[in-house]
Amino acid sequence: MAEVQLQKITKRFGRTTALADIDLTISDGEYLVVLGPSGAGKTTLLRTVAGLLEPDRGSVRMAGRDVTRLPPDEREVAYLPQTYALFQRMTVWENTTFSPSVKGWATRDRDTLAREMLSMVHLIDRGESYPRELSGGMQQRCALARALAADAEVLLLDEPLRALDARLRIELRSELRDLIRHVGTTTIHVTHDQEEALMMADRIAILRAGKLLEVGPTEAVYSRPSTPFVANFLGEMNFFEAVSYPAEGGGVRLAAGGTNLHAPERRDLDGRVMAGIRAEDCGIMPEDWRAGQGVEGIVQRRLFMGRRISLEVRAGDLGVLKVKPLTAQAKWAREGDPVFVVLPAEHILLFPIPPGGIEAALEVE
């Protein structure tokens, strides 16, 4: 397999900078998920690695070899685009066996691999079908099987599960991740689905307007994001301004909207800070509850989401707090109820005050 290195990659389309000085290394056998909103540059990044786009500046290296100017067929890369790009005059079986056949694989080995891939994507019984005879989700699964059967050193997946129904998408997340981990293929997977990224990646990279904001192990980026944008993009956040003071026994004390809270210390910050906590990390209790820190409020909106309930709670000077407790813990809460929102200290994140305000910091271009 191969390590992939992107060094100072810049790509422009007219006056639009799609990628700006991207420095990124994907280790041999690593599963990297690139996450970002629409238009962030995710597909441009994949197409640049695949050799379908040439960067205006910078270099692409694979296994130590400079491949920046090489065509796609000389890069040992398998690319699954959003458009699937299936061969319309070939059957599902022929699409899947195409690459091993071109590489001269023995028939037995080729057929064994194709059966394994088509079984994984639940298309083993549609081998004689043509793409036009398949639903959009089936076409996507066929394209995924073909990419996996290419046995390339680097696998590039552009929204590989987006057209699938919810149940199958969840199932294939696990199977795809386990298969690639077993084979050891270096993989770059692009998505805008936060849950998919967190579940499948060894590391995640966050793109915004062509810039690489953050890259790191999944749990580390989720629990200790470097910016409000990254924090909010990985899970719905509540933000509020506060004044931070050292607290006895460690951590800091926050004065926010007439409420005193405790939070973990961030050594590079004091004074005015932007504090944040994820909606799913907030708790909801009856009005007279006083265990733990938090604020009183009134439920303004209640939405049932299945496993969780989404609540919007008017909490005085802190404004409207979004709370997403498990349904089993909050099914009693109704619109108009007075409640106590629990804000656990260990889940409060601190950031510098964004120069343009929190709305500008969270804006999706």
Q: Care to give the gist of this entry?
A:
Helix content is about 25%, strand content about 35%. With about 375 residues, it is α+β, with helices and mostly antiparallel strands.
Strand order of the largest sheet: 6-7-8-3-9-10
Let me know the CATH homologous superfamily of the largest domain: P-loop containing nucleotide triphosphate hydrolases
Calculate the terminal CA-CA distance, rounded to whole Å: 36 Å
Question: What does the main sheet amount to?
Answer: 6 strands, mixed
H/E series: EEEHEEEHHHEHEHEEHHEEEEEEEEHEEH
Structural class: alpha+beta
Number of strands: 20
CATH class wording of the largest domain? Alpha Beta
The low-confidence parts are none
CATH topology of the largest domain: Rossmann fold
Percent of residues in helical segments?
25-40%
Number of domains as seen in the coordinates: 2
User: Strand percentage, roughly?
Assistant: 25-35%
Supply Rg.
24 Å
| Continuous helix count | 10
Query: On the 0-100 scale, what is the average pLDDT?
Result: 93
Level-2 CATH architecture of the largest domain: 3-Layer(aba) Sandwich
Which descriptor suits the 3D outline?
globular
Notes on the structure:
The chain is an alpha+beta fold and 365 residues long. It folds into two domains: 4-223, Rossmann fold (3-Layer(aba) Sandwich), CATH 3.40.50.300; 231-362, OB fold (Dihydrolipoamide Acetyltransferase, E2P) (Beta Barrel). 26% of the residues lie in helices and 34% in strands. The chain is built from ten helices and 20 strands. It has helices spanning 42-50, 92-102, 107-120, 136-149, 166-183, 194-200, 218-223, 228-233, 327-330, 358-362; strands spanning 4-13, 16-26, 31-35, 57-62, 65-66, 77-80, 154-158, 186-191, 203-208, 211-217, 237-246, 252-256, 259-263, 271-278, 283-286, 294-304, 309-314, 320-323, 338-342, 349-351. The strands form four sheets. Strands 6-7-8-3-9-10 form a six-stranded mixed β-sheet, sandwiched between helices. Strands 13-12-11-14-20 form a five-stranded antiparallel β-sheet. A hairpin with a 5-residue loop joins strand 17 and strand 18 (320-323). The model has no long low-confidence stretch (mean pLDDT 93).
